[in-house]
């Protein structure tokens, strides 16, 4: 079964259980090895004591076969081998048997031990054999032995470790699951609240826990995202409403003109009808073109970035415009951007200025500095008209979509309220700004773009 089928609580509990179980197993193995070594060392010392007791009799010449009695708590198989390698004495259980081992202790220690398997010792088990030498007319060797201990030392030890591992693992798993459940309870509340948020009630927000942990930061980020989504939804609703209103006006005019022509086709002058309908079609075409531009800008699709000479670009845009325009252009001011987009930006500003100017529009291009946002310097374009100007409290309003301060005059002039929003969005997509500054007369639009090195 895949882990993805489990909840977070289940996966964390399973991982914790496996980790704790593995650690307990490793700890148990290390403990068993340590206990085995300690018990084997103790057993070896006991076997060595038996050999030393026998060596005492050999050294005193009191050797007898079978060997003299050994205390009950030290009874072990013992053999005495003479300097010629013959077994000359042994305990009763090894009478008439060959030597249990053939290794000798290395001088000067005079004592050595090994684990010997497949020897004459009975039981089919490996034995710990200790060899000791005593000098008496040659080197006599005393072998004493005891069955080797299993790796778990005693059955009760491994039983305790198995039960302890199971209890500890289950305890940790239950504790981890309970702790994760408690920690994820705010997440469940957030999920439940998100399920109830729809486009019809975007004002609802998820609960923010009091503990300032990761879930607290998650809840705040979710609420901030919901704030932005609500703002976008409101903007989209206003946009759709304004766009439908703007489209309805020329469509209604065209429908009325066509219906009148159909009611009296014999009195209809086709060229005159076309002249009447064409302005509405041009208006629809302008709205569609602006909406397409806004869609591209909203999606953040970048245009081709290239080195653009603003003096040359502005000169070309002003050459295609109507009306009196005073040019104060500094040559050699270059930026990096989309040439067609920057041309659209300048054209929109100039058209807006001409639409509201009394007689003259002044376009100025210069270099600027002192703004920390533009470390390489500023390319500053100023478009100034000599019209009535824009009130300070309305300078941001004109950058909203489908906004016209003078609706009737703008519609006659052909404006649909999208030129300035498009211009600002193009400026921001190039890392610049577009604002309205104070002036003695008229409206003064200031475009700032980062210079290209």
Sum up the structure in keywords.
453 residues, alpha+beta, Beta-Lactamase, Heat Shock Protein 90, 3 domains, 5-stranded antiparallel sheet, 17% strand, phosphorelay sensor kinase activity, HATPase_C_sf, phosphoprotein, transmembrane, two-component regulatory system
Fold and architecture overview:
There is one protein chain. The chain has 453 residues and is an alpha+beta fold. The protein folds into three domains: 8-147, 2-Layer Sandwich (Beta-Lactamase); 198-301; 306-450, 2-Layer Sandwich (Heat Shock Protein 90), CATH 3.30.565. It contains eight helices and twelve strands. Strands 2-1-5-4-3 form a five-stranded antiparallel beta sheet. A hairpin with a 3-residue loop joins strand 4 (127-135) and strand 5 (139-147). Helix 3 runs antiparallel to helix 4 (270-298). The chain is rod-shaped and about 150 Å long.
